[in-house]
Amino acid sequence: MLNKEISNLKKTLDDIIYQKKNIEKVIGILSKCLKDKKNIFICGNGGSAAEAEHLSAEFLVRLKPKNNRRPLPIISLTQNSSVVTACANDYGYDNIFSRVLEGIGKQKDVLICLSTSGNSKNILHVLKLAKKKNIKSISFLGGSGGRAKSFSDLSLIINSKDVARIQECHLFLGHYILGEVEKVIIK
């Protein structure tokens, strides 16, 4: 059983190479955003929310212990439980991310969404708002990309229906992309 799971993960990771051009575009978009002193926002549901917070910590603090760089401005739209629960109570769960982005997002910021299905209503709402506010959107998705694919400026889609494999690949991509952005920013 373990060998099969490792084999499935390897196959899913191997498929990422076919998205090299889009990965390079993401690195460019995030690097430009940071050089222009804009903010990056990140969000996701469930395990993807935990990944959003994890990647936010890596950007704000540091990815590699020997790399003492300035904190990179990224805000996880999932990290404030008071805001999330108040918004869910007062405006509905579908608006937990868009409400915050509406309040603090500015033109030319960047939004990163993590979604294994690409069909969560709160992800779709925040992507639509990002378009209205001229905030570039990047989505890490799974399967076929779901509806989020059509609302995102750029999508990295993990070719799998296995939620665990998708999330593992999203985290790998996040770490890889951040490492490459650090190289650009630190120059």
Strand runs, count: 5
Poorly predicted segments: none
The proportion of strand residues reads: 5-15%
Please tell me how large the radius of gyration is: 16 Å
Name of the CATH architecture? 3-Layer(aba) Sandwich
The CA-CA distance between the termini, in Å, is: 45 Å
Tell me the major beta sheet: 5 strands, parallel
Number of individual domains: 1
Tell me, briefly, the overall form: globular
Decide which structural class fits the backbone. alpha/beta
Mean pLDDT: 95
> How much helical structure, as a percent, in the residues?
40-55%
> CATH fold name, please?
Rossmann fold
N to C succession of SSEs: HHEHEHHEHEHEH
Order of strands across the widest beta sheet? 2-1-3-4-5
CATH first level: Alpha Beta
Key attributes of the depicted protein:
five-stranded parallel sheet; Rossmann fold; single chain; alpha/beta; 187 residues; 8 helices; globular
Give a quick summary of the entry.
By secondary structure, the protein is an alpha/beta fold.
Topology:
Blueprint (H helix, E strand, L loop, with lengths): L1 H14 L4 H16 L4 E5 L2 H14 L13 E3 L4 H11 L6 H7 L5 E6 L5 H12 L3 E7 L5 H4 L2 E5 L4 H24 L1
Parallel strand pairs: 1-2, 1-3, 3-4, 4-5
Structure description:
It is built from 8 helices and 5 strands. With 187 residues, it is an alpha/beta fold. It has one domain: Rossmann fold. The chain has a 5-stranded parallel sheet with strand order 2-1-3-4-5, sandwiched between helices. The longest helix has 24 residues.
